[in-house]
């Protein structure tokens, strides 16, 4: 009796272990993370304090590099924080290979250019802060795929175009900070479905049209900034 009960779970466990091994063999690992970060580093054109130049060295594990945090469970890069380092550069498509990244901050540097579509692979992102740089181009509609995103901070850049309505898909979003950019068009109505939103900063853009009444549905909202736009009734 005891034996027949014991065998099937063992079998299941074996199957599971085999499946896990197959999965990790075919997907990315810490070596992928290292090469992604080395490509990123090679496109940093100005590093005045020589932070990455000397510290991001292949003679130590990527997990010891300044600004890099690895998770203990999967031994992959989970956070990248290069805030306040006075770096100039662009975001390379390779960063999309950091598939365990949940927190990414380049706050207050001089990064520029558009955001590559490969970033859409960062499905674990909870925190994205690209504030106070010189990024341009549009917020791509694929931002709607960041299902776990809680904070999206793109303020003080040169982003333009419309705020994509797929932003209404970010159901975990608590903070959306898009002020001091060049966003145009109407505030998308789906913003009213972000039921966890507490802070919404859209001030100092070129937004126009009516303020969607659906914003009144945001019961968690603590702060709303809409000044310095071309909105009706403002
Ligand atoms: C990462 O995966 C590659 C194959 O995709 C393999 O050659 C390499 O040994 C792996 N590295 C680690 C640290 O597991
Ligand atoms: C890189 O910086 C980290 C964090 O400041 C430090 O712990 C590490 O020793 C440095 N590594 C090298 C090779 O300079
Ligand atoms: C990133 O680093 C800066 C400066 O060290 C720190 O103030 C900030 O809290 C960090 N951000 C995150 C998300 O860890
Ligand atoms: C990482 O990303 C780049 C560009 O998106 C790609 O060419 C490369 O093959 C990817 N994979 C690895 C394992 O580096
Ligand atoms: C952006 O950074 C500059 C310094 O580079 C600082 O003076 C300014 O206050 C920052 N702006 C915001 C909105 O954080
Ligand atoms: C919205 O989110 C759902 C669930 O994460 C996803 O299946 C869907 O493709 C997303 N749509 C867009 C347009 O981002
Ligand atoms: C509005 O944003 C621009 C940058 O896009 C900045 O130069 C300007 O000082 C901001 N104005 C206000 C009133 O915050
Ligand atoms: C959101 O607000 C609109 C207009 O005020 C209302 O018609 C709609 O029922 C609300 N939706 C939800 C899900 O509360």
TrEMBL record:
Q: Which Gene3D superfamilies match?
A: Ribonuclease Inhibitor
Which positions carry the signal peptide feature in this UniProt record? 1-24
Concerning SUPFAM superfamilies, the annotation shows: L domain-like (SSF52058)
Q: Supply the name of the protein.
A: Leucine-rich repeat-containing N-terminal plant-type domain-containing protein
Q: Where is the Leucine-rich repeat-containing N-terminal plant-type domain?
A: 32-70
Q: Which PANTHER family match?
A: DNA DAMAGE-REPAIR/TOLERATION PROTEIN DRT100 (PTHR48060), L DOMAIN-LIKE PROTEIN (PTHR48060:SF21)
Q: Does the keyword Signal apply?
A: yes
> Does the keyword section mention Zinc?
no
InterPro entries, from UniProt? DNA_repair-toleration, Leu-rich_rpt, LRR_dom_sf, LRR_N_plant-typ
Q: Which organism is it from?
A: Hibiscus sabdariffa (roselle)
List UniProt keywords, sorted A-Z. Answer: Leucine-rich repeat, Repeat, Signal
């Amino acid at each position: 009796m005891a034996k027949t009960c014991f065998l099937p779970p063992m079998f299941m466990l074996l199957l599971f272990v085999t499946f896990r091994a197959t999965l990790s063999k075919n997907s990315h690992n810490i070596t992928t993370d290292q090469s992604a970060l080395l490509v990123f580093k090679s496109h940093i054109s100005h590093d005045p304090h020589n932070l990455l130049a000397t510290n991001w060295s292949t003679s130590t594990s990527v997990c010891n590099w300044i600004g890099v945090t690895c998770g203990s469970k999967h031994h992959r890069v989970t956070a990248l924080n290069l805030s306040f380092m006075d770096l100039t550069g662009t975001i390379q498509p390779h960063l999309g290979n950091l598939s365990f990244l949940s927190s990414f901050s380049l706050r207050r540097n001089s990064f520029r250019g558009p955001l590559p579509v490969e970033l859409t692979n960062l499905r674990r992102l909870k925190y994205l802060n690209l504030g106070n740089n010189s990024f341009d181009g549009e917020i791509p509609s694929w931002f709607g795929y960041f299902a776990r995103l809680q904070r999206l901070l793109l303020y003080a850049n040169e982003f333009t175009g419309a705020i994509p309505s797929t932003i209404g898909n970010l159901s975990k979003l608590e903070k959306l900070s898009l002020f001091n950019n060049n966003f145009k068009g109407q505030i998308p109505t789906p913003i009213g479905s972000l039921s966890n939103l507490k802070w919404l900063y859209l001030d100092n853009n070129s937004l126009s049209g009516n303020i969607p009444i659906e914003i009144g549905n945001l019961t968690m909202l603590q702060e709303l900034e809409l000044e310095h736009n071309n909105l009706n009734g403002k």
